[in-house]
DNA sequence: AGAAACGGAA
């Protein structure tokens, strides 16, 4: 229904009827005018002129008898029927009841959205009754009247010195704040002071908001300070401070609120939660979160129903703090309470859906959005784009994007980042061009998506070039830009570059944040750089990131991957409320050290703590079973996945089971298991099976597995090597040659095998093909001595580990040159007597080196940690943590 | 009252 502009100043009845009014000041020029007011005003002119010329009196209700009662009318009230009633009213005048009739007509017209007629009736009946103006303007606003019109009328009346109702002053101050009408707000405040009126709590609140928005937070705080009893306005004061980034003041006021008789309202709690999230203030955040829950509970128990705004506050507050399961619970609660999610609920819900991986539910929500016509909202659209992106449905995302009526930078950035994540750089560039053509300027988010996209796909030079593009576009690369680069390299396994970019970032004078630290820890873990990892740990303590859940988990992972399980466990135990990811990490930590029983008991403890496991938990538990040869337990947990937890086993779980069965010698069972799998076996399955065949010396199965594997991974040299070793074991030298020829034919190069050890700041690499270590002579001298000592206590070199067609003495020599032996020996020579030795090898350890390391730990009384391609071995007093299950 | 970029476990 068309709005009308009844209060255009030319037709302000107060001015037309100046004869009956107090002395008139000339109205000031209007700051705002409705764009449609001119044409609409002409209609108003004629109407006003015609009615003003002949004063009309209103009839008594008796006249209306032909219409039935007013109440009866209310059911089927239409504009036509009200007008008919109105005309009857005009025809027969009766002074006594005129006021009642006029009020009724005004309400009817307002309800029907005919502001013009409502205003007309009001002008004729009440224009000179100033007390009525407040009521009328408030009603006018209630039914959707234009706030600008209200301001215009208010100004005119204000000039006349009219006193207004506090409710109207509150409303006008709100309008001043939203329209940034600086002068009127001041005038109102001044006249309140002049008249000695304090104004009620609402007026004061509105005044503070007005000052906060129009004159800055300090002015608002001044107003607040002058209020004698402040408790009622704490919510507003907190809000104003937080909106203006005064976090400390906001928290102070919030603490005051806890000692007052007042409670924080939903909006305040939400804003506090947001602010705490941004400021990384965890303790405050958790306290406030508790407050949010108790608020909801209190509302429920006292029978007060939260309104939609409160529900939405709760949804977004929980989503913001990563409490996604709570978001879903709140959604259910609000639906039970009879509220339908609106366009502002959907983004928070979708965020939770994405994080929880409830894709089917997400699609249902999409259906709901379409049925309820919420798809025109740009926030909803962007959230949907994001949901389909995260579920690998780029086409759906593009489709939603194309149908989006109002695109903004968020929508563009979402889709662009989707393409970049998939490595579809041409599509991303196409969108970038399109975006610029449509006049949307890329912002830092756009650029950072590009940096991240390039670096996770290993295109570091292009990523670095984008950093320069940022500068030439007039923006400055920030900590996110650099962290994108660092983390991209780390994810890709380009660890060295990752550290180099960190140094570059520091040179640029940019301080790392907790995300940077997490990425760097991943890098350190990847390289088993314990020293560097400890440095980063110190850095994170200095910067107070060490309580960040991500950083903590990354620390646990770094320590366990760097051979320091004790420190990993220390970090894990330091905190009480562990996240699922950190439980998973710690269980995995035990698993890679072959501490299967410990992994299982931690898993049980986790369940006692009411943390539900996910698929990754089971990967960790099953890895623990696999690395410790716990067959029964492995079966038990594998079966329970689907039955007890409703988690569908994925390929990595099947792979663990094949490994577990095969390694224990149950090759037939492993074979049957593979045949019965509901998913197509991939390379990880066949590789686990092949390695078991190798250990068991089962040629028939090995050849089947090898054939599958060479087809699935024709470029992986490890498969060829394993096959040649198998044939060499059975003295099938023709087949050895055949496989070698195949490698040449396919251009597959054997992967370099190397071991390294860090002594002080230097990393010493030992590799068969590489140039020898400068201290090689000394190392071999020590190694020969060591081996003769070891032989005295029972070491027998395992010449079966050498697959060359040479004599046994030569084989023994070859065994000595294995890189892990050299690295351990170097460690023995160059570290303090008590210090454990930490060696990293990029492939699996060979059985002879495993035996040798046990003896080395015995004869030299040293702990040796060896990280091989897949796991850890901890040698101590002549035995290994893996109990020879590997 | 809501949406997009960088972070942990496999």
UniProtKB/TrEMBL annotation:
Gene3D superfamilies associated with the record: Tetratricopeptide repeat domain (1.25.40.10)
Keywords: Repeat
Record GO terms (molecular function): RNA binding; zinc ion binding
PPR repeat windows: 307-341, 408-442, 443-477, 478-512, 579-613, 614-649
Keyword Repeat among record annotations: yes
Renumbered residue ranges of the record's region Disordered: 16-36
The keyword Signal appears for this protein: no
Pfam families: DYW_deaminase, E_motif, PPR, PPR_2, PPR_3
Transmembrane segments: none
GO BP annotation list: RNA modification
InterPro entries the record matches: DYW_dom, E_motif, PPR_At4g14850-like_plant, PPR_rpt, TPR-like_helical_dom_sf
Domain (DYW): residue spans on this chain: 794-886
NCBIfam families, per the entry: PPR
Family: Belongs to the PPR family. PCMP-H subfamily.
Name the record gives this protein: DYW domain-containing protein
């Amino acid at each position: 229904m068309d709005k009308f502009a009844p209060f255009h100043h030319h037709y302000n009845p107060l001015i037309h009827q100046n004869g009956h009014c107090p002395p008139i000041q000339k109205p000031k020029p209007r700051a705002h005018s409705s764009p449609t007011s001119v044409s609409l005003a002409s209609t108003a002119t004629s109407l006003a002129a015609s009615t003003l010329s002949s004063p009309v009196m209103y009839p008594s209700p008796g006249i209306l008898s032909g219409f039935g009662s007013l109440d009866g009318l209310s059911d089927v009230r239409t504009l036509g029927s009200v007008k008919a009633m109105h005309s009857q009213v005009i025809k027969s005048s009766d002074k006594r009841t005129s006021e009642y009739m006029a009020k009724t007509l005004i309400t009817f017209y307002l309800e029907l959205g005919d502001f013009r007629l409502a205003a007309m009736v009001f002008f004729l009946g009440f224009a000179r009754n100033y007390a009525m103006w407040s009521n009328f303007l408030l009603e006018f606003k209630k039914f959707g009247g234009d706030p600008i019109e209200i301001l215009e009328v208010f100004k005119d009346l204000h000039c006349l010195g009219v006193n207004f109702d506090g409710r109207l002053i509150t409303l006008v101050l709100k309008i001043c704040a939203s329209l940034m009408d600086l002068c009127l707000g001041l005038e109102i405040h001044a006249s309140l002071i002049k008249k000695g009126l304090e104004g009620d709590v609402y007026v004061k609140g509105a005044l503070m908001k007005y000052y906060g928005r129009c004159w800055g937070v300090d002015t608002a705080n001044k107003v607040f300070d002058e209020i004698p009893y402040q408790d009622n306005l704490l919510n507003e004061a907190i809000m104003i401070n937080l909106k203006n980034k005064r976090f400390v003041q906001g928290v102070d006021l919030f603490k005051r609120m806890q000692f007052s008789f007042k409670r924080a309202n939903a909006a305040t709690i939400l804003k506090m939660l947001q602010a705490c999230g941004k400021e990384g203030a965890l303790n405050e955040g958790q306290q406030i979160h508790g407050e949010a829950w108790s608020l909801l509970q209190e509302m429920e128990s006292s029978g007060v129903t939260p309104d939609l705004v409160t529900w939405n506050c709760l949804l977004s507050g929980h989503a913001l703090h990563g409490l996604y399961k709570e978001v879903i619970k709140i959604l259910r609660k609000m639906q039970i309470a009879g509220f339908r999610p609106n366009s502002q609920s959907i983004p928070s819900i979708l965020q939770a859906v994405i994080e929880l991986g409830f894709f089917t539910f997400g699609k249902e929500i999409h259906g709901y959005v379409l049925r309820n016509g919420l798809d025109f909202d740009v926030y909803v659209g962007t959230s949907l784009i994001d949901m389909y992106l995260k579920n690998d449905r780029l086409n759906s995302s593009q489709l939603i994007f194309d149908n989006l009526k109002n695109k903004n930078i968020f929508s563009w950035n979402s889709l662009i980042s989707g393409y970049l994540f998939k490595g579809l750089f041409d599509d991303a560039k196409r969108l970038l061009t399109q975006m610029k053509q449509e006049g949307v300027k890329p912002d830092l988010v756009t650029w950072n998506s590009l940096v991240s996209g390039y670096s996770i796909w290993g295109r570091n030079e292009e990523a670095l070039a984008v950093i320069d593009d940022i500068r030439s576009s007039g923006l400055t690369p920030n900590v996110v830009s650099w962290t994108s680069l660092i983390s991209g390299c780390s994810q890709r396994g380009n660890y060295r570059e990752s550290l180099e970019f960190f140094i570059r970032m520091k040179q640029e004078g940019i301080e790392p944040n907790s995300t940077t630290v997490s990425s760097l820890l991943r890098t350190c873990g990847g390289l088993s750089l314990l020293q560097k990892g400890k440095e980063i740990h110190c850095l994170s303590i200095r910067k107070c990131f060490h309580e960040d859940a991500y950083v903590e988990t990354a620390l646990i992972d770094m320590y366990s991957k760097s051979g320091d399980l004790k420190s990993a466990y220390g970090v894990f135990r330091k905190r009480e409320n562990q996240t699922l990811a950190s439980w998973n990490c710690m269980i995995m930590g035990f698993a890679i050290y072959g501490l299967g029983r410990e992994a299982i008991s931690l898993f049980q403890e986790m369940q006692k703590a009411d943390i539900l496991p996910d698929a990754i938990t089971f990967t960790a538990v099953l890895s623990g079973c696999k690395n410790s040869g716990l067959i029964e337990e492995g079966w038990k947990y594998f079966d329970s996945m689907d039955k007890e937890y409703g988690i569908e086993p994925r390929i990595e779980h099947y792979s663990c089971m094949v490994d577990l069965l095969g390694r224990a010698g149950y090759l037939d069972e492993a074979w049957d298991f593979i045949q019965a799998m509901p998913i197509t076996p991939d390379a990880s399955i066949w590789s686990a099976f092949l390695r078991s065949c190798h250990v068991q010396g089962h040629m028939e199965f090995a050849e089947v597995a090898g054939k599958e594997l060479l087809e699935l991974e024709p470029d992986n040299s490890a498969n060829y090597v394993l096959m040649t070793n198998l044939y060499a074991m059975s003295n099938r030298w023709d087949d050895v040659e055949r496989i070698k020829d195949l490698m040449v034919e396919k251009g597959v190069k054997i992967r370099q095998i190397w071991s390294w050890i860090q002594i002080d700041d230097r990393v010493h690499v030992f590799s068969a093909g590489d140039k020898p270590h400068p201290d090689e002579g000394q190392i071999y001298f020590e190694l020969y001595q060591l081996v003769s000592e070891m032989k005295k206590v029972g070491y027998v070199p395992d010449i079966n580990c050498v697959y060359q067609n040479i004599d046994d003495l030569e084989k023994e020599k070859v065994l000595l040159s294995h890189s892990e032996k050299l690295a351990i020996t170097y460690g023995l020579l160059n570290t303090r007597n008590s210090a454990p030795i930490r060696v990293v090898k990029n492939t699996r350890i060979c059985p002879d080196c495993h035996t040798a390391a046990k003896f080395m730990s015995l004869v030299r009384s040293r702990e040796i940690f060896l990280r091989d391609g897949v796991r850890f071995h901890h040698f101590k007093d002549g035995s290994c943590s893996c109990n020879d299950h590997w």
